[in-house]
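Hi P.,

Sorry for the delay on this. The queue was packed all week, but I finally got your sequence through. Input first:
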Amino acid sequence: MTTTASQTAGPYWHIIDHPEWADLRRGENAAMAGTTITLTGQITDGDGTPCGDAMVEIWQAGPDGAYEAGFHGFGRCASDDQGWFRFTTLKPGPVPGPGNSLQAPHITLAVFARGLMNHVTTRAYFAAEPLNEADPILALVPEARRPTMLARETAPGVWTLDIRLQGADETVFLDI
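Then the structure:
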């Protein structure tokens, strides 16, 4: 009996990569009021090697905290050769949570990469946001692991969230 190597299909991100989708201020969002931000980060594997063949999708509420009401909150981009992704968007507002709670402003990220049979999902919360303390989803994450979900402002209006797919300092991923 002969065995064959195990492998995943793809990645074929170049087929579905539309660089303009990394700017959520496009189209109908261009005239929307709000604070323009950049969300960037580097995706690395368990060894710390950059994942230059990943794709990131984001979903977010608009500046008013609504998922509808005219803001197109979906974006997609491929990582570059060093695993970096970059989105330009409007900073989301707080959104209603379970019960009568309020979720802190956040951006949901899905990462598709080599070696993953299914994508992984996390959130980028904004460091120093007062509502983080009461966010019902973030409260479920052990305090020592929360920094893996906190984007830090590395320059005015530029927020960085590095994503580690496994190993030491692995990003917290959500089971959704």
